[in-house]
Write a structure and sequence with these properties.
Elements (H helix, E strand, L loop, with lengths): L1 E4 L4 H10 L4 E4 L12 H20 L3 E13 L2 E12 L4 E5 L3 E2 L2 H8 L4 H9 L9 H6 L6 H17 L4
Parallel strand pairs: 1-2, 1-3
Antiparallel strand pairs: 3-4, 4-5, 4-6
């Protein structure tokens, strides 16, 4: 099976390779078609969908995979939450999966609400560099119990499942 991944981010590539270890993968940068900091489930899902379609279209692979992280305001429980979605397409059908979601600290949430992007905010707040290509926000805020690769792999597995499981 050939899989085109709509990102060159090593964490996203590792997540796909973990879920599909026997696949031949090609990672390529594609446009998500959404803002650099997606807001809400709809925008985040659209970014994943756009990445999957663009990756498959550019390569002719069996499947295209798109992964998008975003943030979403919630009333219950309240706060600004980290969200992540994956899309997998064979060119005809697309399936989606979500990863875990965690509430962001108020200081980070306030900066995002003021228009900043999560990656640079986290790097600044935590004195880090390129956290999004490492354990990510989920790794930091779970005390290392869940890393970004783990979380994104869950989303990818949810999106790949309908193609691989007879239960659908």
């Amino acid at each position: 099976m050939d899989i085109a991944i709509g990102s060159e981010n090593p964490v996203k590539v590792s997540a796909v390779e973990r879920v599909c270890p026997d696949a031949e993968t090609t990672a390529l940068a594609v446009d998500s078609g959404v803002p650099e900091q997606p807001w809400g489930r709809e925008e985040t899902v659209r970014g994943a969908d756009n990445r999957a379609a663009a990756a498959r279209s550019a390569t002719g692979a069996d499947y295209g995979v798109g992964i998008e992280g975003g943030v979403a305001e919630r009333d219950s429980p309240p706060g600004l939450w980290l969200i992540m979605w994956a899309a997998v397409t064979d060119g005809t059908t697309t399936h989606f999966g979500a990863g875990p979601s965690i509430r962001l600290p108020d200081a980070v949430a306030d900066r995002l609400r003021d228009g900043e992007e999560l990656g640079p905010v986290l790097d600044d707040e935590l004195g880090r560099e390129a956290l999004g290509k490492q354990e990510g926000a989920i790794g930091v805020y779970t005390g290392g119990r869940v890393g970004r690769t783990d979380a994104l792999a869950d989303a990818v597995a949810g999106a790949v499942g309908p193609f691989e499981s007879d239960a659908y």
